[in-house]
From TrEMBL, chain A:
<feature type="active site">
    <location>
        <position position="356"/>
    </location>
</feature>
<dbReference type="GO" id="GO:0036243">
    <property type="term" value="F:succinate-semialdehyde dehydrogenase (NADP+) activity"/>
</dbReference>
<dbReference type="Pfam" id="PF00171">
    <property type="entry name" value="Aldedh"/>
</dbReference>
<keyword id="KW-0560">Oxidoreductase</keyword>
<comment type="similarity">
    <text>Belongs to the aldehyde dehydrogenase family.</text>
</comment>
<dbReference type="InterPro" id="IPR016162">
    <property type="entry name" value="Ald_DH_N"/>
</dbReference>
<dbReference type="GO" id="GO:0009450">
    <property type="term" value="P:gamma-aminobutyric acid catabolic process"/>
</dbReference>
<dbReference type="InterPro" id="IPR029510">
    <property type="entry name" value="Ald_DH_CS_GLU"/>
</dbReference>
<dbReference type="InterPro" id="IPR015590">
    <property type="entry name" value="Aldehyde_DH_dom"/>
</dbReference>
TrEMBL record, chain B:
<dbReference type="InterPro" id="IPR016161">
    <property type="entry name" value="Ald_DH/histidinol_DH"/>
</dbReference>
<protein>
    <recommendedName>
        <fullName>Succinate-semialdehyde dehydrogenase</fullName>
        <ecNumber>1.2.1.16</ecNumber>
    </recommendedName>
</protein>
<keyword id="KW-0560">Oxidoreductase</keyword>
<dbReference type="InterPro" id="IPR016162">
    <property type="entry name" value="Ald_DH_N"/>
</dbReference>
<comment type="subunit">
    <text>Homotetramer.</text>
</comment>
<dbReference type="InterPro" id="IPR029510">
    <property type="entry name" value="Ald_DH_CS_GLU"/>
</dbReference>
<dbReference type="InterPro" id="IPR016160">
    <property type="entry name" value="Ald_DH_CS_CYS"/>
</dbReference>
<dbReference type="InterPro" id="IPR015590">
    <property type="entry name" value="Aldehyde_DH_dom"/>
</dbReference>
<comment type="pathway">
    <text>Amino-acid degradation; 4-aminobutanoate degradation.</text>
</comment>
Length: 585, 496
């Protein structure tokens, strides 16, 4: 294990860590409750941007919870430190690329949350900064709501539900359709901002905006198709009807990797069903969410129906959304660990849950596959959003007979990538979302290299471009004992495993606790069915690298969560079934 | 009692306890007032099995009246009751399976092993429909007007159904249609083919024993199917006609039914293409073709009529098929070792002969069989393999309906698809390939209602059976089977 002299890299005060996870000796830790407890031995600590700690000698002695102590640090070291000046410069640069700055609530700083049909700032005056991972500069600040304000938003949503639940389905459909039109009209600004806050290339962003808008159009149609059943009853004089009704207030918690699509996929269904909602977007990418709320407002969504809260702390607001009894349903997309936490918290009030969690997608290339097609599909699947999607191939299993030619095809394609700032012309792949993400990718790569893998290309941070850029990487000789086989990398690392039989690869592919997407390439119809049926995942791409489609039910099995989004199943997640038994004379 | 009657455990099921077998109308044994009868022959011996009462149009009217009266109460039975009745009927078929198998073989000629499969499938249909009866769902649609109204769509039995069935599956066609009609809550008048009335007589008797109320299941046995059929298709009390048979008769029935705008289901003739690509193991493909082509003497509407084999495996395929076919044991179906029984009639034999003569005159070669077998008494024909077929031959555009495998050679997918679809009918089609792209492409492009992809089975209770083009319309069994006997009623319900 490496050890490090911390005094040289960490100073007392707000720390901007440029390295992660090394063993440090921690004498004591102070928790948010104020309780301090001694610790012993080596601890694996992770430092992320905006972490606060103090260091004494060679040892970290306190690891403060970043939220509760943030104000203290700000009082001590100034609100923005030296970074404010830099971000102003950056502001002018990107603002010129956006036509309608009002769309992101940027007429005045900070950008605000949308509650009860009004744009509101935190009463505490707190804000948090949103950084552009491409240039590591602050884009702008966003109001940082307190939990009490989220609670208020829930109450407002609950009041709005009393009338919105009675809205006609035709109104809902018209609303969604107007919102869809507005998204398309503002597609350029939405894509630009998405690239700014997420880092993905502009072409990826444009693709996402269309994909995201399509959900609104789809659910506009679904609103008109909330069908129940009529049944004959066992007793001759009875008739049974089933009707579907909106579940109530929905808490929607979304990730940064699809800043727009994850919102529309959930919100579109909820609105169509007749639910009201409180949306909490990721702190990394709140501007896409702000813009969507603006457009929803312009489309005429009634006040209080759609509420969007911005906050730096995911945990506290997540806790409120999952424990407040007024919330009847929580839909979350994000990591499996957080998903488990939310499920646990939701259990106290038995909320209905939809969880779209992490994956560890196998991508299997059999010896009879069309290798060119498979390689093209792999590139699209593995490197979309620089590998930061939950359906990205994580483990690429290639039959030993075609391993070498396939690796060559992949290598040829990856070497044509153009890594760079997402808004620049011709860039195919952008930075990762954060330094934290880069560290995880580096960790996976280092682990693989240490255990015998070889990097044909990439394998390191592209520090000449910035700290969040990672060279697209092709690893050969990947093995099951490597981290990359066990965890989702969520980065541009294409790790190629070799296999020789169908039984073997199925065993390997399924030896993970998660199961979201899986891909297989073969021309043999029997094998395709055998393997597709045996894969323990919720979505299988057969001879294609794309499983995301508005029309296809999206969701996982095992620890990738439950519930389905999109398709005709999507809306049913937001509906309760009520059966009416009617007796006639 | 005749000697034939003695081979059955329950000869009275078929009416052998009477000099002339009666039929079932209004829950009673029914014999025509005209005292007419017709005789039913065993195609394996060309000798009489027995005599069956020959109903007149007047009798048919009575049967329709009986069904119509019974409908008034039967439509109000619960789905659970109907499900139980169907289950009981299925159990009775099971109990009397041996007798039914023997009768199917006697009147149709098919080997007992095939008759066994047919009766088992019949039981499968009834069990399937027993489950379907309790799964008749409607919808509740949202209304665009107010929140306090529902648009309900409920399904109700259409009324009296007329079932007209063929001789090639005396048991399966009655149960496939009758099970659906009864599950839906319809009453019915069934008219089995003149050549095979006994199985239907027994099925109706078992339905009565199962507890179906009188008048629910009526059977018309007649030698005059056209007059009695016309009564069924024009009688205003009948609301639905379900017919399985030839395309020509189907057109007549449809035309007759139009006067009273009856809902119709038609399962008509096919001309099934059977396409084998070179990447598929030849032995397996030969096995599949053999299984379906010579099943029930090839008198099956989903039998492959045109076998398209890719040129690379054509020689191999035809040689192996011919070898296999030469070893087929032809004989009386009651002999358990028989693999191929007689055809239904002399006309059946004549049609094959005509098809073979036409093909040979245009250049085809006979690789196996090719002739009528005259020394066995009945209507036997040698199982035949023809090679060198081309699209100008009669077989290419007409269903042979016999044990004749006609092998066409093809070169590429586009060509074979063009040939396969170059027919007015479209019931079943088969494609054999391991290549996914080819399989999906061919399955999509084939203009048929049923595709066997790497399998020769296209007919089982879970599948919705039915054709397109001039093979008819409507589906039987599967998820859509019962729907054919139901009407959807929309109720816009407003709460005041």
């Amino acid at each position: 294990m490496r050890t490090k002299d911390l005094t040289k890299s960490i100073q007392v005060g707000r720390v901007f860590i440029n390295s992660t996870r090394w063993p440090v000796q921690v004498k004591e830790r102070t928790f948010t409750t104020g309780k301090t407890e001694p610790t012993c031995g080596i601890h694996q600590l992770s430092f992320f941007k905006r972490d606060y700690c103090s260091v004494e000698g060679n040892h970290i002695i306190r690891n403060y919870n970043k939220i509760t102590n943030k104000q203290d640090w700000k009082n001590k070291f100034g609100k923005y430190g030296g970074r404010r000046e830099m971000s102003k410069m950056a502001n002018q640069e990107w603002m010129s690329k956006i036509q309608d700055t009002e769309l992101f609530d940027l007429k005045e700083q900070p950008a605000r949350s949308f509650i009860g049909g009004k744009w509101v700032a935190a009463s505490s005056g707190k804000v948090f900064d949103v950084e552009d991972p491409g240039h590591n500069r602050v884009i702008a600040s966003v109001t940082d709501l307190a939990v009490e304000e989220t609670r208020e938003a829930i109450e407002i949503a609950h009041r709005a539900f009393q009338s919105y639940r009675h809205s006609s389905v035709r109104e809902r459909a018209a609303l969604l359709r107007r919102w869809y039109d507005l998204m398309l009209e503002n597609a350029d600004d939405l894509a630009t901002m998405m690239t700014l806050e997420n880092g993905k290339s502009l072409s990826d962003s444009k693709g996402e905006v269309i994909y995201a808008a399509n959900f609104l159009d789809w659910f506009a149609g679904e609103a008109l198709r909330i069908n129940g059943d009529s049944h004959m009853a066992s007793a001759p004089n009875n008739r049974i009807l089933t009707v579907k009704q909106p579940v109530g207030v929905v808490g929607i918690i979304t990730p940064w990797n699809f800043p727009a699509a994850m919102i529309t996929r959930k919100v579109g269904a909820a609105l169509a069903a007749g639910c009201t909602m409180v949306i909490r977007p990721a702190a990394e990418t709140p501007f896409s969410a702000i813009a969507l709320a603006k457009l929803a407002e312009r489309a005429g969504v009634p006040a209080g129906v759609l509420n969007m809260i911005t906050s730096d702390s995911a945990a506290e607001h997540g806790l409120e959304l999952t424990t407040n009894p007024l919330v009847r349903k929580v839909s979350f997309t994000g990591s499996t660990n957080v998903g488990k936490l939310l499920a646990n918290q939701s259990s106290s009030t038995l909320k209905k849950l939809s969880l779209e969690l992490g994956g560890n997608a196998p991508f299997i290339v059999f010896e009879d596959a069309d290798l060119q097609k498979a390689a093209d599909a792999l590139i699209a699947c593995k490197f979309r959003g620089s590998g930061q999607t939950c359906v990205c191939a994580n483990r690429i299993f290639v039959h030993s007979n075609v391993y070498t030619p396939f690796v060559q095809l992949v290598y040829d394609r990856v070497s044509q990538f153009r890594l760079g700032y997402g808004l620049d012309e011709g860039i195919t792949h952008g930075p990762l979302v954060s330094r934290k993400a880069v560290h995880k990718v580096q960790e996976h790569v280092n682990d693989a290299l240490n255990k015998g893998a070889t990097a044909l290309t990439g394998g390191s941070v592209a520090s000449e471009l910035g700290p969040c850029y990672f060279h697209p990487t092709v690893l050969v000789g990947a093995k099951q004992n490597m981290l990359i086989a066990q965890e989702e990398t969520f980065g541009p690392v294409c790790a190629l495993f070799e296999f020789s039989t169908e039984e073997e690869v199925l065993k390997l592919a399924n030896s993970t606790p998660v199961g979201l997407a899986g891909y297989l390439f073969s021309k043999d119809i029997s094998r395709i069915f055998r393997v597709a049926e045996a894969l323990e995942v919720g979505m299988v791409g057969c001879n294609t690298g794309v499983v995301s489609d508005v029309l296809s039910p999206f969701g996982g099995v095992k620890e990738s969560g439950y519930g389905r989004e999109g398709s005709h199943h999507g809306i049913s997640e937001y509906l309760d079934i009520k059966s009416l038994t009617i007796s006639i004379d | 009692m005749s000697s034939i009657a003695s081979i059955f455990h329950r000869p009275e099921l078929f009416g052998f306890d009477q000099p002339v077998a009666p039929t079932t109308v209004h829950g009673n044994r029914f014999t025509s007032n005209s005292n007419k009868w017709f005789s039913v022959d065993n195609p394996a011996t060309a000798q009489e099995i027995g005599k069956v009462t020959d109903l007149t149009v007047e009798d048919t009217k009575k049967a329709v009246d009986a069904a119509s009266n019974a409908f008034k109460s039967f439509k109000n039975t619960t789905h659970v009751q109907r499900s139980e009745l169907l289950s009981r009927w299925a159990s009775l078929l099971e109990e009397n399976k041996e007798d039914l198998i023997k009768m199917v073989t006697l009147e149709n000629g098919k080997p007992v092993s095939h008759a066994d499969m047919e009766v088992s499938t019949s039981i499968g249909y009834l069990k399937w429909y027993a489950g379907e009866a309790v799964r008749i769902y409607g919808d509740v649609a949202p209304s665009s007007l107010q929140m306090n109204n529902f648009i309900l769509s409920v399904k109700q039995p259409i009324g009296v159904a007329g079932l007209i069935t063929p001789w090639n599956f005396p048991s399966a066609m009655i149960t496939r249609k009758g099970g659906a009609a009864l599950a839906a809550g319809c009453t019915l008048v069934a008219m089995p083919a003149t050549r095979t009335p006994y199985t239907c007589i027994a099925l109706a008797k078992l339905a009565l024993e199962a507890g179906f109320p009188e008048g629910v299941f009526n059977v018309i046995t007649t030698s005059n199917v056209s007059e009695n059929g016309k009564e069924l298709t024009t009688n205003p009390l009948i609301r639905k006609i379900s017919f399985t048979g030839s395309t020509d008769v189907g057109k007549i029935i449809m035309s007759q039914s139009s006067s009273t705008v009856k809902k119709i289901s038609m399962e008509l003739g096919g001309n099934a293409p059977f396409i084998v690509f070179p990447d598929f193991p030849v032995d397996q493909a030969v096995e599949s073709l053999y299984n379906i082509k010579f099943f029930s003497a090839g008198e099956v509407c989903v039998c492959p009529n045109r076998v398209y084999v890719h040129k690379d495996i054509y020689e191999d395929f035809s040689k192996k098929l011919a070898e296999k076919v030469k070893s087929i044991k032809v004989g009386n179906g009651l002999d358990p070792s028989t693999a191929l029984g007689p055809l239904i009639s002399k006309e059946g034999c004549d049609k094959i002969t005509k098809h073979i003569d036409d093909s040979v005159s245009k250049g085809a070669k006979v690789l196996a069989g090719g002739k009528r077998i005259t020394d066995k008494g009945g209507y036997f024909f040698e199982p035949t393999v023809l090679t060198g077929m081309d699209q100008n031959m009669v077989v290419a555009c007409e269903e042979t309906f016999g044990p004749l495998a006609s092998l066409f050679k093809f070169d590429n997918t586009d060509q074979v698809l063009e040939w396969a679809n170059d027919t007015e009918v479209g019931l079943a089609g088969y494609v054999f390939t391991k290549n996914l792209t080819t399989l999906v492409h061919v399955a999509k492009e084939l203009e048929v209602g049923l595709v066997g992809a790497n399998i020769e089975l296209v007919d089982e209770p879970f599948m919705s059976f039915g054709g397109i083009k001039q093979s008819g319309f409507g589906k039987e069994a599967g998820r859509h089977g019962v729907e054919e006997f139901m009407v959807i009623k929309e109720i816009n319900l407003k709460a005041l």
